[in-house]
Amino acid sequence: MNTTLIIMAAGIGSRYGGGIKQLAAVDDYGHIIMDYSIHDAIEAGFNKIVFVIRRDIEADFREAIGDRIEAVCRKLHVETAYAFQSLQDIPEGAVLPLERKKPWGTGQAVLAAKELIQEPFAVINADDYYGKEAFGKLHAFLQEYTPDKAKDFCMAGFILKNTLSEHGGVTRGICQVDENGFLTDVRETPEIVKGTDPADGRVTAFAGERPLDPDSYVSMNMWGLTPEFMETLEEGFVEFFETAVKENPLKAEYLLPIFIGSLLRERKVSVKVLETRDKWFGVTYKEDHGAVVESFRKLIREGVYQADLFGDLRQAERTER
User: Fold this and answer.
1) Cα–Cα dist 82/180, whole Å
2) pTM (2 d.p.)
C-alpha cells in the first residue's frame, strides 16, 4: 500500500529571530535532521514525501534539502511534492484578522497538503529526530488501513525523559493511555524542565512546580492518519474560525494534537499508541545544536547510519533489482 510522509516545515526559522538554524548541518557530511527522518521513512517503506513550507523560505529550503532530496528520491522511486501553508488560506466566508502575522498552526499545516493525499499518511515536525523504530511501527500500522478503518489512527508514544532539553523548558503533549494501549487524552503542557533526583540521579521532570512522571508517554507530533481525516480536519478548521478565532484572533492556533484530543474526547476516533524507546532530539534552542551534532556522530560510530546516509538504501534498491 502507498503511504505518504508529511513533513511540517512551515514554522522553521521562526524561533531564532532570523536565519534558519533547522537547516544547518547536524553531522560532518552536510546532512540536516530532515535527511535522517526521510532516510528512516523510506527505509520503513514510505514512498511519498510531502514538504509543507512557507513561500518565503522556499529558496532556502530547496537549497538546503529540497533539490538534493528530490534527486535521491527519484533514484529510489519515491515521489516528492510541496504544499504551502499561508496565513491567507482560511475557510470560505471567514475574515482574516487585520493584525494577524503568522499562519494558523500545525492543523492548518497538514490541511495544506489535502489535495496531495489519497493514501494513509504520517505527520512529523521538520526539526525533530524520531529514530528508526517509530517510522517502522507507524508504517506497519498504516499498512493495515482499509476504508472501514477510516477513524483508526496511531501515534508514536515517546517517553518524556527521552525528549527533554538540557537548555530550557519545552512543550510536550502529555498523554493518557488506557490498559489496551489506546490514547484517551493528550494535553499540551508548556515549560517542562528536566531535572535530576539528588537521591539516585534519575531524570525528573517538572512543569512549573508540578512534578511529572518522567516515564509517561508524550506526543512529539508524529501521527499516523487516514486520508478521510483530511475532511474532518477541514471541518474542524471552519469551526476553529467560528469559535477560537473570534475569541482570540491574533493568537489562536489550530493545533493538530489539540484537535485530535477533542475528537478522542468525543469518541469519534481511536488512536493506538506505538511505544518507542528511541531518544528524541531536536533544535528547540540554539544551544541544542552542539548536542545534536554529537548525537548523530555517535549514531554513525555505532553503525546505525552510514556516513553516506542514503547509500544503504541505494544498495538495497540495486540488490532488489
Assistant:
1) 37
2) 0.93
Per DSSP, the three-state class of 265 is helix
- Residue pair 109/85 in contact (Cβ under 8 Å)? The answer is yes
pLDDT in tens, 185-243: 888 888 999 999 888 889 999 998 899 999 999 999 999 999 999 999 999 999 999 99
Residues 6+ apart with CB under 8 A from 290: none
Nearest to 249 by CA among 91, 129, 104: 104
Q: Binning pLDDT at 50, 70 and 90, where does residue 320 land?
A: low
DSSP state of 302: T
CA 282 to chain centre: 11
φ, ψ for residue 305 (rounded to 5)? -130, 155
Picking from 142, 103, 79, 97, the residue whose alpha carbon sits closest to that of residue 8 is 103
Measure the CA–CA gap between 51 and 299, rounded to whole angstroms: 25
Give the separation between CA 103 and CA 117, rounded to whole angstroms: 21
Distance CA 127, CA 22 (A): 6
CA angle 166, 167, 168 (to 5 degrees): 105
User: pLDDT tens digit string along 259-295?
Assistant: 998 999 999 999 999 999 998 888 777 778 888 999 9
Q: Look at the block and give the residue holding cell 478548521.
A: 237
φ/ψ of 307, rounded to 5, equals -60, -40
* Dihedral sign, Cα of residue 39, residue 44, residue 48, residue 54: negative
